[in-house]
Design goal:
alpha+beta, seven-stranded mixed beta sheet, 16 strands, globular, hydrolase activity, zinc, MBL fold metallo-hydrolase, RibonucZ/Hydroxyglut_hydro
């Protein structure tokens, strides 16, 4: 009898944007409380997940993205590392399956410094996972997380110590920006609210483009039809909701292909207006490159 598999196939998926190769790389998932979902009745939120055949409490995908352009390799976000749930921290194994050694990555771009995006920068001993990479992020993001005395009212106060610990091994190879091209064919798009320096990244080559929008949504089954719904992790919930509305309007009007850190793997989709709201259309698995 043929043995049954005891593990899923590696979670990687390649997508060309013109001459740029973008690879979705899963870091796994996190299970979390429904209590972090704001501005919606808890019963309504649970009902929306059940109607979409999703787990209650919520299950959140963690996606990172490799960008290979101009002979260089960037990693967009680093996942949860070894510091969160056992269901996360799969980035390194999936990078290996993609044939990418950590030492070949020359740039790590961060959407923001919440632990499920930046805790994969360093191991439990504080050593950099990416020994040859510069670390790049929006200057407002770095300033926010490196402040010595975070306001007592700030959600996620423990995250400040995590951010400083994770960034420390890259102190001598840190690059801060406020927009513009940050990697060949890749431009930063400031999308504040979730955090002050939260960024998306627009990849453009030829007549093709992709907006990797970071954490514009955390729970797509809820926040796409109800974009006013926010999360306790939002540093400025009102601004986060306003940014989400602006981004939704833009990508729907222009037909922009999008990718997200918390969209279901491989995380690439289109967003369209429908019946006075929005609907997400996940892109079909690409069989060829």
């Amino acid at each position: 009898m043929t043995p049954l598999p005891d593990a899923q196939v590696p979670a990687i998926h390649h997508r060309r944007i013109g001459d740029v190769l973008v690879t979705s790389v899963s870091d796994g998932f996190l299970d979390g409380s429904m209590a972090v979902i704001q501005n919606i009745d808890p019963g309504d939120a649970a009902a929306m997940l059940r109607a979409a055949f999703r787990p209650v409490p919520r299950r959140t995908a963690l996606n990172c993205f490799l960008i290979r352009s101009g002979g260089r390799t960037a990693l967009l976000d680093t996942g949860a590392g070894v510091h969160m749930q056992a269901s996360a921290g799969r980035l390194m194994a999936n990078l290996a399956a993609a044939g990418v050694a950590p030492g070949t990555i020359d740039t790590v771009l961060l959407t923001h410094m919440h632990p499920d995006h930046s805790n994969g920068l360093a191991d439990a001993h504080g050593a950099a996972f990416f020994p040859n990479a510069e670390l790049a992020m929006h200057q407002a993001e770095h300033a926010y997380w490196m402040q010595e005395n975070p306001p007592a009212s700030t959600q996620g106060v423990p995250y400040f110590a995590m951010a400083r610990t994770q960034a420390a091994p890259y102190a001598d190879r840190l690059r801060l920006f406020d927009g513009g091209e940050v990697f060949p064919g890749v431009s930063a798009v400031h999308l504040p609210g979730h955090t002050p320096g939260h960024c998306g990244y627009r990849i453009a080559s030829g007549d093709e483009s992709l907006l990797i929008w970071g954490d514009i949504v955390h729970v797509p089954e809820i926040q796409v039809p109800r974009p006013e719904v926010t999360m306790t992790f939002d540093v400025d919930p009102a601004q986060a909701a306003a940014t989400r509305a602006r981004v939704f309007d833009m990508v729907a009007a222009d037909g922009v292909l999008i990718a997200g850190m918390h969209l279901h793997f491989p995380g690439v989709a289109n967003l369209a207006r429908e019946a006075g709201g929005f609907r997400l259309y996940p892109e079909a698995w690409r069989q060829t490159l």
